[in-house]
User: Fold this.
Amino acid sequence: MNLRSVVTSFLGFLGGANPEKYCSPPCVPGDESIMKPKEHGTSHTPVQPNLRWNCDNTLADRICNFNRHYAENSGYFEENDISFLSEVKKMENPEKFYDSNTGKLLFTAPSGRTWKEFLEESHRHGWPSFRDDEVNWDVVRILPNGETVSIDGTHLGHNLPDKAGNRLCINLVSIAGNPSSSVVD
Assistant:
């Protein structure tokens, strides 16, 4: 991505860009009502107490529930005190990623690519990066400015499409939840 396209994407993000740019099929668009204030910021509940991969609960709660534009630090998922990389490098099967507030299934990855390809793309962009086949579109929505959220009001990250299609750059702290006992995958 060249500097001009980065600047154009950023300015579009700030100014409420063309929604078709950020949500091409099979993406499911959402609207601002999803992120209206609720009992706990934009969500009905705080993040779960024991997030996966040693993710920081305070950071997760701030990013998931009291934030619309910011993210965890680029490369957070690769930090030494975060166990995500060491765990997924051992995996052969796709991993399920759950909403840190509700425990609902959001993503299953990798799909249509290898773990190596998933991790290489995520490393290049600084955040876990998901493609359309890896998204649970029953629960994930893209707002007109590219913000990626759950139907329950959890801020997940942003859709930054490239020539291959939708690329959802997602905060690890937003998808480090444990499956809810009331949620069936």
In short: Residues 1-17 have pLDDT under 50 and may be disordered. The first strand starts at residue 95 and ends at 98. Residues 3-15 form the longest helix (13 residues). The radius of gyration is 15 Å.
